């Protein structure tokens, strides 16, 4: 059963002990005084990914079904468990002194105000100087290098969510979401996954097309939608989408990590624009 949500801009235990988080612990070592510090985190439906400036992608942690799992359908459902995970990541990557540090956290485009507010509260409790709550589509746009130029369609096919977002000059103009993803289709009859996933994507793009009065969707299709998430790793899915649209498609490099890598680029940009005193300006958590 497809559940599709429309969006308009306005203007497994929770994780395995050790495992991927050990990669963060290996960063180690004291930082230079005044060094830029930051952390970019993608809390996806399948697990967490972490990016640290100067080190790149340092951790992946897969959720396991069961009580205490912090994220479902891209949204924080267990704030306590999520807070413990974020605290461990911050302790390891940023150390005890958080002054001048910046944390960027991704969220699904249509995650909703409650999710974004909860994410800001959890991050602010860690004590950074600045918090940035960033939509996944804008992170992907930053990753592929076209954040502010013309119309762009981002198709994110994740484990439990599929989202299509239309960006125009870097701003979210429209978005659709199907609350289903790769994990929902794993038990489907062999060979039916590409059809199900492609059907969701085409339904959302067609819905956008019908409501687009300025030709932005047509322009974005002409440029080629950017495909990301685990679904973009499946040629049977990507080829079918391209054939049904009659348009070229572009794959984000390493689609499964494009969101967190884009968040890392946004983080680098924030850190580069520090004040002349060498510290990041202290600002309230903001959405991008």
TrEMBL record:
It comes from the Bacteria. This is Rod shape-determining protein. InterPro entries: ATPase_NBD. Residues 1-29 are annotated as: Disordered. It comes from Streptomyces halstedii.
């Amino acid at each position: 059963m497809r559940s599709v949500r429309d969006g308009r801009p306005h203007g497994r235990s929770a994780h395995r002990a050790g495992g991927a988080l050990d990669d963060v612990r290996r960063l180690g070592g004291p930082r230079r005084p005044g060094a830029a510090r930051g952390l970019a985190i993608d809390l996806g439906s399948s697990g967490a990914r972490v990016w640290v400036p100067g080190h790149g992608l340092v951790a992946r942690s897969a959720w396991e079904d069961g009580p205490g799992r912090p994220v479902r359908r891209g949204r924080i459902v267990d704030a306590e468990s999520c807070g413990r995970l974020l605290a461990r990541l911050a302790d390891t990557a940023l150390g005890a002194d958080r002054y001048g540090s910046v944390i960027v956290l991704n969220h699904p485009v249509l995650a909703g105000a409650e999710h974004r507010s909860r994410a800001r509260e959890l991050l602010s409790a860690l004590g950074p100087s600045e918090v940035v709550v960033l939509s996944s589509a804008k992170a992907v746009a930053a990753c592929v290098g076209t954040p502010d130029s013309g119309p762009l369609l981002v198709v994110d096919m994740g484990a439990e969510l599929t989202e299509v977002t239309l960006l125009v000059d870097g701003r979210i103009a429209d978005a659709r979401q199907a609350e289903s993803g790769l994990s929902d289709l794993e038990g489907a009859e062999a060979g039916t996954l590409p059809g199900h996933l492609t059907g969701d994507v085409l339904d959302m793009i067609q819905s956008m097309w019908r409501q687009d009065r300025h030709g932005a969707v047509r322009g974005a299709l002409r440029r080629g939608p950017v495909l990301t998430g685990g679904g973009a790793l499946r040629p049977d899915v990507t080829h079918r989408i391209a054939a049904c649209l009659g348009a070229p498609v572009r794959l984000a490099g390493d689609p499964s990590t494009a969101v967190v890598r884009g968040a890392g680029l946004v983080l680098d940009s924030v850190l580069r624009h520090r004040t002349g005193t060498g510290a990041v300006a202290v600002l309230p958590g903001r959405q991008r």
